[in-house]
């Protein structure tokens, strides 16, 4: 039979096991609470990290868009610079051509108006001047003769009646009968 001592010892043992189990349960509960707190902190941290990650992704997308726009602007500016360079090169070439033409004209003028050729040029100019003067005198004489002939015709037409004037021929040079 079971004695009181055995029962007490079994009860003590059971109480001891129960106390140790109670302590272990409390330890495990404390550990559960602690782990739940850690889990909650980790979840919050995870949410913050996800938010930061999403924010970083938005920043990366924004940066990429800005970089793309910047590259496009740089390309546009490069094209504009290239166009300006080509325009300036074209203007410079036109200027150089004009300069070469002026240099050639200067060389030609320099060769025409040299000290050695000056007496010949002066003689030629005097010869042309005398020819023009003689032609002018001849034309003046012809003009004076025409003025006299016209005056004579006017005087003659005033003295002759109107019916006879129609039958008369023109006496001026260059007039022809019809």
From TrEMBL:
Coiled coil: 4-87
Keywords noted in UniProt: Coiled coil, Meiosis
Cellular-component GO terms for this entry: synaptonemal complex
The keyword Transmembrane helix is assigned to this record: no
Annotated InterPro entries: SYCE1
Any one GO biological process: synaptonemal complex assembly
Pfam families recorded: SYCE1 (PF15233)
Family from the record: Belongs to the SYCE family.
Protein name per its UniProtKB record: Synaptonemal complex central element protein 1 isoform X3
Protein source organism: Parambassis ranga
Taxonomy of the source species: Eukaryota, Metazoa, Chordata, Craniata, Vertebrata
Gene behind the chain: LOC114452353
């Amino acid at each position: 039979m079971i004695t009181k001592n055995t029962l007490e010892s079994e009860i003590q043992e059971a109480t001891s096991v129960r106390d140790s189990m109670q302590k272990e349960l409390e330890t495990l509960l404390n550990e559960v609470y602690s782990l739940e707190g850690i889990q909650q902190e980790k979840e919050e941290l995870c949410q913050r990290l996800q938010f930061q990650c999403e924010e970083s992704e938005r920043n990366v997308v924004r940066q990429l868009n800005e970089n793309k726009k910047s590259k496009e602007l740089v390309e546009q500016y490069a094209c504009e610079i290239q166009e300006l360079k080509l325009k300036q090169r074209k203007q410079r070439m036109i200027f150089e051509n004009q300069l070469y033409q002026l240099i050639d004209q200067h060389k030609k003028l320099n060769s025409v108006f040299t000290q050695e050729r000056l007496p010949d040029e002066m003689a030629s100019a005097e010869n042309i001047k005398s020819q023009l003067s003689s032609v002018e005198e001849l034309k003046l004489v012809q003009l004076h003769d025409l003025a006299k002939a016209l005056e004579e015709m006017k005087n003659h037409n005033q003295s002759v009646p109107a019916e006879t004037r129609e039958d008369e021929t023109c006496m001026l040079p260059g007039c022809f009968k019809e």
